[in-house]
Amino acid sequence: MPPVSLATLSKGARGVVVDVRDDAQSLGDEAHSTVSRRLLELGFVAGERFEVIEAVWPGGDPLAVRIGNTTFALRRREASAILVEAETGKRGAP
Amino acid sequence: MRLALVGVPNCGKTALFNRLTGSRQRVANYAGVTVERKEGSFVGPARQRLYKVLDLPGAYSLTPTTLDEAITRDFVLGRLAEEPPPDFIVCVVDATNLRLNLRLVLELRDLGVPMVVALNMSDLAEGRGYKLDRTRLEAELGVPVVETVAVSHNGDRHLIERLEALQHPGAREPVPWKEPTFDDIQRTQREVRRILRASGYEEPLRKRALTRVDAVVMHPIAGPVILAAILFFVFQAVFSWAVVPMDIIDGGVAAVGTWLQNVLPAGALRSLLVDGVIAGVGSVLVFLPQILILFFFILALEDSGYLPRAAYLLDRVMGSVGLSGRAFIPLLSSFACAVPGIMATRTIPNLRDRMATIMIAPLMTCSARLPVYALIIAAFIPAHPVGPFNLQGLVLFILYFAGILAAMAVAFVLKRTALRAAYHPLLLELPEYHWPHLNNLAIGMWERTKVFLQRVGTIILALMVVLWFLSSYPAPPPGASGPAISYSFAGTIGRALEVVFAPIGFNWQISLALVPGLAAREVAVGALGTVYSLSSDGDVAGSLVPMIAQTWSLATALSLLAWYVFAPQCLSTLVVVKRETNSWRYPLAMAAYLFALAYLASFVTFRVATALLS
Amino acid sequence: MLQNLIVGALVLLAALYTLWALVPGRTRLGWAKRLGAWGRAPGRPAWIARATSGIERLAAAKQGGCSGCDPAAPAAPREHKPPPR
Q: How many beta-carbon contacts under 8 Å exist across B and C?
C-alpha cells in the first residue's frame, strides 16, 4: 500500500510512520525550528506506530494522534508533513 | 556546586526541584508551567557541600520554538551574559515516556557538559508494568542514571547520593553548538530506539480505561458539553459551597466590630478601627472562601491533565478569532489573576499571537473581581432556583461569559488589524491523566490563602486607613446637616469624579471606591464598606449588602457589574504587561481600550436598564 | 488627645506603606539607596544608620513590581537563604 499523508486519515486510523517531509513551515518566532523538525523531535519517526484517536470534528481540526506513548494535538496542515502507511479494516490489531 | 534541572515539559521536573530544595511552588501538568527562573539550594548530607539548583523551563529540544525553550538552550550553552553555565546538568526524564524524553538526553550528552540522568516517576513506571534495565541504560548512555520519585518523601535519595560522589568539574568555557540538521535528528532518534532496545525497555499498552476517558472527554459533542458543564459547576460551587464559611467570617467580623464599639470610648480611634479597619477589611475578608473554592478547581484541573485537552477542544473556537488553542492555558490562569496568565503566554511560539493573548488576558474575570460581583449579586439578585440552578450562580456565570465574549471580540479585531499574523502551527502534547495530588492541592490552596491574607493585612489595610482619614477629615462645619463624610476630602474627590461617572449611573461613593481599586480591584469593596459605614447616620454600621441594596438602583448595580467585566483599573496587570512586552505601547493601549469598553458597556447597561425598569 | 496622636501616627504609617507598596520597584530601590546613603553619613546615630540600611535591604529584596500583584504567580524568583554551613 502506498504511503499517504496523515492529514487524510480520520478517527480510528492506525499504522506506521514512513517518513516526515521537510517542509519549511516555521513553528515559532524565537528560532528557526520548523514543523517537521519538531515532529521528528517529538517522535514522528519512521517505523513508529501511530493512531488517530480523535478529531474535534470528523474531517476537521485539530487531530489527536497517539505516537509511541504520547498523545499530541495537531492540525491537518501540520499532519500533512507526515507520511504514513495505514492499516485498513483491522481495528484492534496490536 | 551549581546544578541545572533540564527536561521536557510534563516530566515532573518542577516536582523534583521542590523535593530537592524544599521550596514551595505549584506543580502543574500542562506544557510549560515553569516559566520563571527558579533557584533553590540544599546541602548534601555526606560532605556538607552546598548545591545551588536552577529549575530551567521545560524544553523538548535545544532548537527552540518558544521563549522558554530559547532560555533553556542559552542557559545550558552558557550564552546568557549574567548566568555562568551550570557545573552539572540533571536531565530529568519521565520513566513512563522514555521515547519522547531520551532524545533530549542524547542532545545534552553530546554537548559534553557533565550530567546525571534522573529517571523520574520510576515508581509509577514500575507499577504500570514498564520494564527497563537501569544499569544497561547507564552503560549505553555513558552517563550516570538514577531513579527518582519526585512526589514521595526521600524519593530523591539516589540522586543526592550520586551527586555527592561527583567531583567539581572546574570552570567551563561556553559550549560550542551547531543546530542539528534534519538528518541529525533522525539519526539521534534511531539511536534512542537502539538504546531503548538494548536496555530491555518495554512499555505496556495504554490502560483501556484511560483510552475510554479520552474518547469521552475529547469527543466532538460530549467534549465541549463536559467542558461547559465543568465550568458551570465551578461557578455554582463558588456560590453554594461558600455560604456557610462566609456567614461565619461575616459573623466574626461583625462581632469584633460591635465589641470594639462597646469597649472603646467614642472618638477618632474608635471610628478608625470600627468604620475604617473592620468595615473595610472585613468586607474583603468575607470573600476568602469563594476565592479558595475557585482555586481548588483550577488547581485540580491543572493537576489532572485535563487542561491541555480543553485547549485541544477549544482550538477551533479560538482559531475562529485568530488565536491558537495554546492561548487557552494562559487565559485560564487569568481567571485566577491576569499577572501569572500574562507570564504564562511565554509558551506561545508566535509573537503576535502572544501579544493578542496578553491584550485580552485582563478580560478574563480574575479572582479580585469576584468580591465585587459577589457583593452586588448578593444585594440585588434573589437566590431563586432556575431549573436545577440558582439565579445567583447563573448571573455569575453570565458575567464570566461576558468577559470571555468580550475577549473573543477584541481578539478578533486585533488579529485583523494591528496583530495580523500568518498561519501558525499547533503541536500540543496531551499528557497522561493523573489523579490530582492532594498534597499539591493543599499546598496550592494554602499559598493562595497566605497571599490573600497578606494582601488584606498589608496593602488593603493600609489603603483602608488612608481612606478612612480622607473620609473623616476635614470635619463638617458646625451646624452642618447630612453625614460628615460629604464634607471630607473623600467627599470632595468623589463628587469631582461623579461628574465623569454620573452618566453611567455611579454615585459619588462608587466613583470614590474605584480609586483605591487601582491598587487591587477587591479594595473597591472594602472602600465601599468604609465609605458607607461612615455615611450611615446610625451609631452601629450595618452590613454592606443591605446598605447598598437600599441605596442603589438596580440600574446602577447592573452598570457597576458591567464596569467590572472590563475593569481597566489594575496597576499590577499594566506593570506586568510593560515588563513582558518591554514597551509602554501595549500597557497604554490596554488601559485605553479597557477604559473605553468599560465606560461604553456601563453607559449602555445603565441607560437600557433605566429605560426598561422605570 | 492621646487618641488623636495614635490615630495620626497610624494614618501616617499607612500612607507611607501605601506609597512604598505601590511605586515601581526600581523607583523604590532608588529612594531606598538615597535614604541609606543619607543614613550612613558620618555623625548619624547608629540606630538611624541601621534602620535606613535595613530599608535599603528590604527594597532590594522586594525588587520587581508592586507587592502582592500576583496571587497566583508561579513563585517569583526568590533567593533561598543558604543554610548554615
A: 133
Alpha carbon distance B464, B457 (integer Å): 10
Q: What is the number of other CB atoms lying within 10 angstroms of the CB of residue C4?
A: 11
Cα–chain center distance at B408: 20
Q: Residue B191: pLDDT above 90?
A: yes
User: Which SS3 state, helix, strand or coil, does residue B538 take?
Assistant: coil
B190 and A CB contact within 8 Å: yes
Asked if residue B488 lies in contact with residue B473, where contact means CB atoms within 8 angstroms, the answer is: yes
Closest chain C residue to B459, measured at CA: C18
DSSP A26-77: B--SSS--BHHHHHHHHT--TT-EEEEEEESSTT-S-EEEEETTEEEEE-HH
Cell numbers 485583523 correspond to what residue?
B416
CA distance B76 to B61: 12
Q: Inform me whether the C-beta atom of residue B96 falls under 8 Å from chain A C-beta atoms.
A: yes
Contact of B40 with B50, CB cutoff 8 Å: no
The average pLDDT across B59-86 equals: 81
Tens digit of each residue's pLDDT (9 = 90 or more) over B431-476: 888 888 777 678 778 877 877 787 778 877 888 888 888 888 787 7
Residues near B331 by Cβ (< 8 Å), separated by ≥ 6? B341, B357, B360, B361, B364, B407
Q: Percent of chain B, pLDDT > 70? A: 92
Q: What is the DSSP string of B27-41?
A: ---STT---S-EEEE
- Which has the closest alpha carbon to B558: B606, B498, B594, B510? B606
Which residues of chain A have a CB within 8 Å of the CB of B424?
27-28
The DSSP code for B517 is: G
User: Taking 50 as the threshold, does the pLDDT of residue C34 lie above it?
Assistant: yes
Please report the number of interchain residue pairs, chain A to chain B, with beta-carbon separation below 8 angstroms: 150
Give the pLDDT score at A30.
53
Report percent pLDDT > 90 for chain B.
14
Within 8 A of C22 by CB-CB distance, chain B residues are: 459, 519, 571
ipTM, 2 dp: 0.88
Mean pLDDT of B136-146: 92
**Mean pLDDT for the stretch of residues B536-562:** 77
Pairwise CA distance, residues A58 & A56, whole Å: 7
Q: How confident is the model at residue B607 (pLDDT cuts 50, 70, 90)?
A: very high
Q: How far is CA B262 from CA B431, B507, B534, B569, B597, in A?
A: 59, 32, 17, 38, 47
Residues 6+ apart with CB under 8 A from B419: B352, B353, B355, B356, B359
Q: C80 at the B interface (CB within 8 A)?
A: yes
- How far is residue B486's CA from residue B505's CA, in Å, rounded to a whole number? 19
On average, the pLDDT of chain B sits at: 82
Question: pLDDT digits over C49-81, tens only?
Answer: 888 888 887 776 654 433 333 333 333 333 333
Q: What pTM did the predictor assign?
A: 0.76
Residue B416 Cα distances to A29, B16, B40, B364, angstroms: 19, 43, 44, 21
